[in-house]
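ok so i was messing around last nite and threw this chain in just to see what happens. nothing serious, just curious
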Amino acid sequence: MTRYVIAADGGNSKTDIVLASDAGEILSRVQVAGTRPHRHGMAATMRALADGVHLAVERADVPTTPAVALADFCLANIDVPEEEAAAQAELERLGVADVVLVHNDTFAVLRAGATAGWGVAVVSGAGINAVGVHPDGRQHRFLALGPETGDWGGGEAVAVAGLGAAIRAGDGRGPDTVLRTVVPEALGRPSAEVIALELNRGKLQMHSMLALAPVVLVAATGGDAMATEIVVRLADEVVDFAAAALRGLDLLESAAEVVLGGGMLQSGNPILLDRIRDQLHATAPSAVLTVLDVAPVAGALVDALMTIGADPLAIARARTALRC
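result:
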């Protein structure tokens, strides 16, 4: 009898949910809102995920509604074991699957990209986080709550920095930059100052600012000095995370895989990736840098299929189907 699994990768801005068979066939894929239980509450956040699971089941190309054997959720903003347990209990109560697993979203990137099953994953989507796993199973994790835990990076931080550079260019505190023009254009506003006022007064939500992050990357590639400075800062933050995880697990001298995932790091921006590669090599010369070539949800799906004992060929088939 065919068994079915659910895999979910929840970020700050969206959650990618996949339903697959134990043969590695992707039967449906849906996107729902991101996971922000600190803002919307754990119960409401998990209920929205459960609704996404039900939608994926409804859309599946199967004769009858399948019973899901296992659901593997890798979720942003589920940062400590107590939150993982609370999320798991809520999803079990909602009956999304016979077995429910919950992890932080960094584990999806690691499992999708680390061929040996261990190493370091750094995720930069809307925010930034990382995880390290030693070959013996030990983990190095970060609280990664944002500015209050010393974090900088991800699309939101890059977007705000780009807006700030545009403002400073206008009021004389900073040098001229193409961001002065392209930032308001990207959001359809007459000026950077209008964006800043709307953001400050609550008329513009932070998730809308994410549209500015790719603009900063493009400006950097085009040679803009201020945009390049922002991208270099992001690269250095990524390396700080990776180096800290490697150091904490005594892997600095090893050939550990360092997997980069999330929209910012999978953008292919050459300035960003070249800086990360150079700085990582200076700190951990034997580390092997990899940019994830699949959607991060592939990591949750690989983990789910492995957990139910699916054939390795089926697992490879599922991963291939989720290539970017």
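not much to say yet. The radius of gyration is 20 Å.
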